[in-house]
TrEMBL record:
GO biological process: gamma-aminobutyric acid catabolic process
Official protein name in the record: Succinate-semialdehyde dehydrogenase / glutarate-semialdehyde dehydrogenase
Superkingdom of the source species: Bacteria
Gene Ontology MF terms: succinate-semialdehyde dehydrogenase (NAD+) activity
Organism of derivation: Krasilnikoviella flava
Keywords: Oxidoreductase
Length: 488
């Protein structure tokens, strides 16, 4: 049985939200949300249809002008109040994340802190949108440049960080003055729906427009999203998910030339140079690989380790992984939770098999533990061929392939040998080498002697096929603003 408290379970919204009201989906259709650690059905949730999607967009469009007219200070105070309410209920949010996503409670608590922080940060940024007044160079007139909200935004969020990926989009959108329609992942809609409920009730208490936040959970994402992207009331699409789906959405969004923000796949290299502090590198590697059981687009995907320390690094990482406890996230002492579903386990198993077929050795793990749930053992592979799928594809699981390199140039060439460019990590005690990493590795985010880069106040995003635009920091707000130039 899930460990959700009966009080939380009794008050969770399970419908769709439009016009400030939670209702059933048309036709009363629902889909099941399942606990990946047990296979238990947690809730039946409204399965919004394309028609429901249009209703939610109409709700957002109806309040776009009113929301744009609300003073930045009021938008800021709404976000700050929602931040405080989420922090006050962080235990409830964490247990919900663990129930629907599987990650251990300690990680879920950390995600609530991280996720709430986007609301605090954008509460602070809402009142700092800047413009410009200057005399034109020819001296004949003035130029006034000001910013205004893009308009109704569709936010499509993934299942791996159910609160943080929602607030990272909702925070800047509302701060900028854009009403939103959120389409949460069908595996983990409940946490996002609870966030939306906090915003809805706080907005209602403040007399703010009811339709600023709308939610359309659905099991048929493509059917719901495609017509919205061709509806001229929509002006913005923000998506976090795979590069393959991102490409399709970009093609659909081209029809209306929508503003788009795309946080797509990654294949982060984790580079350990010969001069690295190996204990620190092992700590960083464990975090960078095993946060959410490796199911993150910034997870370390490939461990590139200098020849002189590769064997020692791989063996010591394997010793650490072997000592970790895999299990249900709500059980004390569990370090690694389940993967999201059976398909994810299947894919990770295929990648490991492909690597071993090409000669890799399994130093620890390599398979599924016995029992229910969709688990995979923390795994370290040594001597991995650089053409192995586990090196070339995004793993999204707790598998660490180790590849040795001979010198810095080879490390940089291997690191950049991918169509992705999201995150990278490097361990070195040389400042000069660290600066070179920043200059040579093609990635939007680089952790030096750190296994974690995520921060609400920093620009999160990638280059190459890892996406377009940034979320978080000052840049995250820009994604929801238009620039208007007035020649006076
Ligand atoms: C992601 O995996 O998409 C986001 C992870 C993070 O924000 O740290």
């Amino acid at each position: 049985m899930s460990s959700l408290s009966p009080a939380l379970a009794a008050h969770l919204p399970t419908g769709m939200l439009a016009d400030g009201q939670w209702t059933a989906a048309s036709g009363g259709r629902t889909f099941e949300v399942v606990d990946p650690a047990t296979g238990e059905v947690l809730f039946d949730v409204a399965d919004a249809s394309p028609e429901d999607g249009r209703r939610a967009l109409a709700s957002a469009a109806d309040v776009a002008s009113a929301w744009r007219g609300v003073a930045p200070r009021e938008r800021s105070e709404l976000l700050r109040a929602v931040y405080e309410r989420i922090v006050a209920r962080s235990g409830a949010f964490a247990s919900l994340i663990t129930a629907e996503c599987g990650k251990p409670l300690a990680e879920a608590r950390a995600e609530v802190t991280y996720g709430a922080d986007f609301l605090r940060w954008y509460a602070e940024q809402a009142v700092r949108v800047e413009g410009l007044v200057r005399t034109a160079p020819a001296g004949a007139n003035r130029q006034i440049v000001h910013r205004r909200p893009v308009g109704p935004a569709l936010l499509i969020t993934p299942w791996n960080f159910p609160i943080a990926m929602a607030t990272r989009k909702i925070g800047p959108a509302l701060a900028a003055g854009c009403p939103v329609v959120i389409k949460p992942a069908h595996q983990t809609p409940l946490t996002t729906m609870l966030v939306a409920e906090v915003i809805r009730s706080e907005a209602a208490e403040r007399g703010l427009p009811p339709g600023i936040v709308n939610v359309v959970p659905t099991a048929s994402s493509g059917d719901l999203v495609a017509p919205l992207l061709t509806d001229d009331r929509l002006r913005k699409l923000s998506f976090t998910g795979s590069t393959a789906v991102g490409r399709t959405l970009l093609q659909q969004a081209a029809d209306q030339v929508l503003r788009t923000s795309m946080e797509l796949g990654g294949n982060a290299p984790f580079v350990v140079f010969a001069d690295a502090d190996l204990d620190a590198a092992l700590d960083g590697a464990t975090v960078a690989k095993l946060r959410n059981a490796g199911q993150s687009c910034v997870a370390a995907n490939r461990f590139l380790v200098h020849d002189s320390v590769a064997r020692e690094f791989a063996q010591r990482l394997a010793d650490r992984f072997a000592g970790l406890r895999v299990g249900r996230g709500d059980v004390d002492g569990v370090d690694v939770g389940p993967l999201i579903d059976a398909e994810a386990v299947e894919k990770v198993a295929e990648l490991v098999d492909d690597a071993t077929d090409r000669g890799a050795q399994v130093l620890t793990g390599g398979g599924r533990p016995d029992g229910p749930g969709t688990f995979f053992q923390p795994t370290v592979l040594a001597g991995v061929d650089t053409d192995a799928r586990v090196v070339r594809e995004e793993i999204f699981g707790p598998v660490a392939p180790v590849v040795a390199f001979a010198d810095d140039d080879e490390a940089f060439a291997l690191a950049n040998d991918t169509e992705y460019g999201l995150a990278a990590y490097a361990y070195t005690t040389s400042l000069e080498r660290a600066l070179r990493v920043g200059a040579e590795i093609d990635a939007g985010m680089i952790g030096i002697n750190r296994g974690m880069v995520s921060d609400a106040s920093a620009p999160f995003g990638g280059m190459k096929q890892s996406g377009l635009g940034r979320e978080g920091g000052e840049a995250g707000l820009e994604e929801y603003l238009e620039t208007v130039y007035v020649a006076l």
